[in-house]
Design a protein that fits this description.
The complex is a heterodimer of chains A (about 300) and B (about 280). Chain A has one domain (about 15-140, about 150-295). Helices cover about 45% and strands about 20% of the residues of chain A. Chain A has helices at about 1-5, 20-90, 95-135, 150-155, 160-165, 215; strands spanning about 175-180, 185-195, 200-210, 225-235, 245-250, 265-275, 285-295. In chain A, the strands form two sheets. Chain A has a five-stranded antiparallel sheet with strand order 1-2-5-6-7. In chain A, strands 3-4 form a two-stranded antiparallel sheet. In chain A, strand 1 (about 175-180) and strand 2 form a beta hairpin. Chain A starts with a helix and ends with a strand. Mean pLDDT of chain A is about 85; it is low at about 210-225. In chain B, about 20% of the residues lie in helices and about 35% in strands. Chain B is built from six helices and twelve strands. In chain B, strands 3-4-5-6-2-1-7-8-12-11-10-9 form a twelve-stranded antiparallel sheet. The two termini of chain B are about 40 Å apart. Classes of the chains: A alpha+beta (about 300), B alpha+beta (about 280). Chains A and B meet through helix 2, helix 3, strand 3, helix 6 and strand 4 of A and strand 1, strand 2, strand 3, strand 4 and strand 5 of B.
């Protein structure tokens, strides 16, 4: 083509720009391909990031809700403490007061045990919610199969395998991985959680006077001491409840036609925490959640 | 008609039913709460304040304000390390002031003021503890004597049972505490059945009232933690570790709310004690 143009150059002045145009078009096509492929990988990465963010935030929110419930429990404990304090303060008999003190302490311990049991369930709830939200947002591009003789309405109503997997709460089971096939091969999405801290409630000890020579004029010979009592929860360890979620997504090998560009495995990580609120009695028990790091 | 209402209100005021206790609120209070507790038929009002005042300022404040209102200080106990207790009286009216220092991350000084009518409580008398609180008249009893312990209570003390939570057959009601906000009721019964029988009784009978057992935990599960906790208590007769570890706790949820049933050894005698804590 170039020899032809060279020989005919005297007679042919038109089309000189064509080689440059062709080369430019090739470059533009190449740039479009690169843009499209990067965008595809970007979307792929967005899916994993969304999933990690959603999982971490949902987990932190559930953690906060668990702490809020502990806060309401703490209110109840403090209400009982005040009731017990009032009972014991107005009681005039040593032995009777001691007996009531023993019974009330047993109830206070029972309430503390319940608080511990409630706190112990928080990590499990956090994990379930974080897995659920992460998988719901990870973007499983599985084609719903069409069986023969199936009408469009039936196909629409039919659940995909992934929907069924979510409904069956299979995401709760290790290795928390969903795999699906397409014409290129097998793909998978996996969610990995950092260990979820178990909030440990701490006791708020408050004195409750039972007897005292000076104050109640009774119980000659008894100790005149402010008796400690389990009044409520003073706080919990791991109050910020950092929830870390890693999401991985793998798409089977497919050549984008450009330097063997492939999706491979894309990974994202997000960490969220709870803040605000307090479990102390009669305080604001409302916890909020926020993302603290993403990558 | 307005005259009749006025006379009734004056009468109630004279009896102390409508008395305003807002003067108990110390300056610089950043949190306050009022709570009414009914103990075996007797009303006790509790006021809780959290303030930025120091303990010394609070003592001065209550001394001044309560003296102005005609109260006299009956007694005081001040434990430097933790807290102070002060009792003021005016005729039959009693105001107990409990001042608690800030603790850990619990900010400010907390004041719990409980107001009750002494005559209403002691007039019930002990009468072998059948008619309310034990009275002042028998305060010569010293620890070690058997007077006025749980064993000496032979019939129900005033109060009422809950319709939807059964009481153990043949039991004697020891105390009934009713709290307004948060609403809760605590009833303690003395009974002779074994721990296993009582557990079985509640597991079977709570079903009839649509309660669902959500958890059952023995306090002995606390193990070393319980030893650490009870280590904070003065050593002596009031609460032995054995009594606390004997507690078996049943937790129920139902259409009425939540119920915690604690079955434990009687800390003062034979048999068992069942404590029912009901929360809406």
């Amino acid at each position: 083509m170039f020899i032809y143009f060279s020989k005919e150059k005297i007679n042919y002045f038109k089309g000189q720009i064509a080689p440059f145009l062709i080369a430019s078009i090739a470059i533009v096509v190449l740039l479009i391909m690169i843009t499209v492929n990067i965008a595809r990988i970007g979307l792929f990465k967005t899916d994993t990031s969304n999933a990690a963010d959603a999982g971490a935030l949902a987990g932190a929110t559930v953690y906060g809700q668990g702490l809020m419930n502990l806060g309401f429990h703490s209110d109840n404990m403090f209400g009982f403490y005040l009731a017990a304090a009032a009972v014991l303060a107005s009681c005039r008999s040593c032995w009777y007061a001691w007996g009531m003190y023993a019974v009330f302490m047993a109830i206070a311990l029972a309430l503390y045990l319940l608080a511990k049991a409630m706190a112990g369930k928080i990590p499990g709830n956090v994990r379930e919610t974080a897995y659920s939200y992460a998988f719901q947002n990870i973007g499983i591009e599985e084609v719903k199969p069409h069986t023969s003789g199936e009408s469009y309405e039936e196909w629409l109503l039919k659940k995909s395998r992934f929907s069924q997997w979510m409904d069956d709460e299979e995401y709760k089971n290790p290795p928390h991985k969903y795999t699906w096939d397409d014409r290129y091969g097998q793909n998978y999405a996996q969610v990995i959680l950092d260990p979820v801290p178990t909030p440990t409630p701490h006791i708020l000890w408050r004195p409750v006077v039972v007897i005292g020579r000076g104050l109640f004029g009774c119980c000659h010979g008894c100790l005149c001491l402010p008796m400690p009592f389990i009044a409520a929860l003073s706080g919990v360890s791991h109050e910020n409840g950092p929830i870390g979620v890693t999401t991985q997504k793998y798409r089977s090998d497919r050549d984008f036609g450009l330097w063997k560009m492939r999706y491979g495995t894309i990974e994202s990580y997000a960490q969220a925490e709870t803040y605000g609120g307090s479990v102390r009695p009669w305080s604001d028990h409302t916890y909020d959640s926020r993302l603290v790091s993403t990558k | 008609m307005p005259l009749i209402i006025f006379i009734i209100l004056m009468g109630l005021n004279f009896l102390g039913y409508t008395q305003d206790f807002s003067f108990l609120k110390p300056p610089s209070t950043f949190y306050q709460r009022e709570q009414k507790v009914n103990v075996s038929g007797q009303d006790i009002k509790a006021y809780v304040f959290q303030t930025t005042l120091t303990e010394a300022d609070l003592i001065d404040f209550y001394d001044r304000v309560l003296k102005d209102k005609g109260f006299t200080k009956a007694s005081e106990e001040f434990q430097q390390a933790s807290t102070g207790f002060f009792k003021y009286t005016k005729k039959s009216q009693v105001i107990n002031i409990q001042i608690m220092k800030a603790q850990g991350d619990f900010p400010g000084v907390t004041v719990v003021a409980s107001v009750y009518n002494q005559s209403a409580i002691s007039s019930e008398g002990c009468s072998t503890c059948g008619g309310g609180f034990p009275s002042d008249n028998s305060l010569t009893s010293s620890p070690g004597s058997t007077a006025q312990n749980f064993d000496s209570i032979t019939e129900d003390l005033p109060g009422e049972d809950l319709e939807f939570i059964p009481r153990p057959p043949g039991s004697i009601r020891l105390v009934n505490v009713k709290n307004d906000a948060p609403f809760m009721v605590n009833i303690v019964y003395k009974c002779s059945q074994s721990r296993e029988e009582l557990k079985k009784f509640y597991k079977q009978n709570m079903d009839y009232h649509y309660w669902k057992l959500t958890a059952e935990i023995s306090s002995s599960q606390l193990g070393d933690e319980l030893k650490n906790l009870t280590g904070k208590l003065p050593q002596g007769p009031p609460v032995s570790l054995d009594v606390l570890t004997s507690a078996y706790n049943l937790y129920f949820k139902g259409p009425y709310g939540e119920a915690t049933i604690v079955i434990m050894e009687n800390p003062q005698g034979e048999g068992r004690v069942v404590s029912i804590l009901y929360r809406k």
